[in-house]
Structures are given as C-alpha cells and as structure tokens.
Amino acid sequence: MKRLFIALFSIVLLVSFSSVVSAKTIAVVDLEKAMHNCIAGKKAKKEIEKLVEAKKVVIDRKVNRLQQLARELRNSKLSKKLKDKKALSYQEKAKELERYKADAADEVRTKERELSTKVINDLIEVIKKYATAHKIDAVFETHQGLIYWNDALDITQSIIKMYDAQYLKSKK
Asked: Helices marked H in the chain — which ranges?
C-alpha cells in the first residue's frame, strides 16, 4: 500500500511538473534593432533626417542674417540712432533664433516619437502573430531587463522580414 501511494504521488508530481515546464516556449526580440532595420523604420529615419535638414537650413539663414547685422553694428560710420536701431534689431533676431531652435527641436522630437511609436506598435502586432503561428508562449524584449538568452531564441530577423513583407503588401 505504501509503494502504491508513493508511486501515485510521484506520478502526480511528475505530471504537474512536466505540464508546467514543457508548455513554456520563449523567444527574445530586439525591438530597437527591428525598428532601425525594417523598411518602415528606415523610412521614418529618413523622414526625420529631412525634417532636421530643413530646420538647419532655416537656422543657417537666421544665423547668417545675425552675422550680417553684427558686421553692420561694427561699422563705426553709422550714426548713434542707426546703431541703436540695428542693435535692437539684432537682439530681436537673436531671440527669434533661439525660439526657433527650441521650437524646431520640439517638433523633431515630437515627430520622431510619433513615427517610432507607430513602427513599434506595428512590430508588436507582428510579434504577436509570429508568436501565435510558432506556438511561442512568451517573447521578451532584449533591452527590458533580460539578463541571459540563447541567441537561437532571438527572432528579431524573422520579425523584420515578416514586418517588411506585411508593410510592402499594405503599400501596394
């Protein structure tokens, strides 16, 4: 009787333990890498670079105008009244330049956040589809506190390919 009880207890423990262990399949993904290497991420990066370049052109023009005003102020042949007028104009333009730089930086950050959020959200949806199709129980993002993983678990490249295919299909 004691042997039967020990055998039954062992079987229950074994079944309980094996159902907990064998049902778990995990994978990792590097969302940052996926975002920077997928087509939509590269397109977003180019869009941000274009915006930054456009803002730099305007800033350069404003800086050139300030430099021109500074040269005019150094001209000793100007009357005091004209010098005062140009000095006031210089101060106004300098303040305007600083406001523009701050506004431009805010606009770039906002656009970057908007585009990044869109790509990340799309990637997460692809990850969910991939995990369901491949019977993966959990996917960890590599930069969110994961200490160790087997590189064989990294599905980043597969996610990029699947997302790019979906992205290109949606653009047709």
From this structure: 2-22, 31-37, 39-73, 80-133, 156-170
Q: Is residue 16 part of a domain?
A: no
Paired residues of 140 in beta bridges: 28
121 within 8 A of 7, measured Cβ to Cβ:
no
**Nearest alpha carbon to residue 119 among 17, 43, 54, 9:** 43
Which amino acid belongs to residue 150? N
Query: What range does the domain containing 59 cover?
Result: 24-170
Instruction: Name the strand (E) or helix (H) holding 77.
Output: none
Cα 29 from Cα 153, distance rounded (Å): 8
Residue 2 located in a structural domain: no
Q: Is residue 107 domain-resident?
A: yes
Geometric angle at alpha carbon 123, from 122 and 129, rounded to 5°:
95
pLDDT reported for residue 74 = 84
Q: Tell me how many domains the chain contains.
A: 1
CB atoms within 10 A of CB 109: 11
Over residues 95-128, the pLDDT tens digits come to: 999 999 999 999 999 999 999 999 999 999 999 9
Q: For 150, which DSSP code?
A: -
Flag whether 119 is in a domain: yes
